[in-house]
Amino acid sequence: MGPFTLAVETKSSSKASSDVSNRKIHHLQLEARKCFASVNMEKEKPFDFLRILFEGIIAGGTAGVVVETALYPIDTIKTRLQAARGGGKIVWKGLYSGLAGNIAGVLPASALFVGVYEPAKQKLLSLFPENLSAFAHLTAGAIGGLAASLIRVPTEVVKQRMQTGQFTSAPDAVRLIASKEGFKGLYAGYGSFLLRDLPFDAIQFCIYEQLRIGYKAAARRDLNDAENAVIGAFAGALTGAITTPLDVIKTRLMVQGSANQYKGIFDCVQTIVREEGPPALLKGIGPRVLWIGIGGSIFFGVLESTKRYLAERRPPPSQHSKHD
Questions:
Q1: What is the dihedral of CA 186, 191, 197, 198, to 10 degrees?
Q2: Does residue 227 lie in a domain region?
Q3: What per-residue confidence (pLDDT) applies to 134?
Q4: What is the pLDDT of residues 291-309, one digit of tens each?
Q5: Residue 270: inside a domain, yes or no?
Q6: Whereabouts are the Solcar repeats (predicted)?
Q7: Within-domain flag for 36
Q8: How many CA atoms lie within 13 Å of 125's alpha carbon, on the beta-carbon side?
Q9: N-to-C CA span, the chain
């Protein structure tokens, strides 16, 4: 009986060892696949739309106001460079012109963007395969940008008209634009704005999220504020450089006013290239990359810090929900 018992124990041990090896391999495969999923996805928790929406609105609004206040002069210089035709001179005074009115628009626009982006991202990540998380981030960024454009465009029109010296106050700008150009004047360049901002939002947030996922997987820990800021700066600067021609077109269409120098997006491109040459489509690329690079650093640093602050102050789940 001795040898028989030994044989049984050996087979059992071999089988157990095989099971352990299989579980380890399966676990490693799951970990490899998780590298492509969002670091914010926690599938064991239910999808809480209202909480995600609320936290996104607070975090987005805070980040947007901080960035706009800090970097507004650089944005003003960029706008004046792009609006100058031919060899026009740049005015260096009044670099904070229109800031108060712009913040009044940036606060709800940023809050709306992140408030829409965060729940859309979470929902799409639960629907998309894990290896297609980048498409979830791209789509969520475009959806957030489309929602925010309803506030962003009038804000941008008023801001850029003030930055180029056409008006001295935001209320006057809104009143005069509406009276001379109608309500549609506040949405001048809307098509070019979407042409620039939807790709920009989608690409920037996709790059940012994917870099965070890769960095977190490599570091095997949560990222700190400084690391989030560096990743945000890189994502912003790269996306800003890529979309500069779209930004030039958008600026020209928005600041033309009732003069109607350009008949549309394609006419604007043709006119700029014909009269000023192709390099004119890259006007303001230096200030734009600097502004968006620094802005991305501040925005994403503040965004993640605020999200973490709100998450730490969530009420603990009830005992009832735990048993459920």
A1: 130
A2: yes
A3: 93
A4: 899 999 999 999 999 999 8
A5: yes
A6: 50-123, 132-214, 223-309
A7: no
A8: 25
A9: 51
Domain span at 123: 48-312
* Chain centre to alpha carbon of residue 45: 25
| The dihedral sign for the CA sequence 154, 159, 161, 162 | positive
Cβ neighbours for 186, distance < 8 A, ≥ 6 positions apart: 153, 154, 157, 158, 174, 177, 178
pTM: 0.70
180 Cβ contact partners less than 8 Å away, ≥ 6 residues apart: 257, 258
Say how far apart CA 216 and CA 223 lie, in whole Å: 6
pLDDT in tens, 20-34: 455 555 554 544 444
pLDDT for 192-243, tens place per residue?
A: 788 888 999 999 999 999 999 999 999 999 899 899 999 999 999 999 999 9
Helical H runs in the chain? Answer: 2-34, 49-83, 99-127, 133-163, 170-181, 190-219, 225-242, 244-255, 265-276, 285-312, 319-323
**Listed residue (75, 51, 209) closest to 137, CA to CA:** 209
Is there a domain that residue 42 lies in?
A: no
Of 244, 237, 236, 292, which Cα lies nearest the Cα of 272?
244
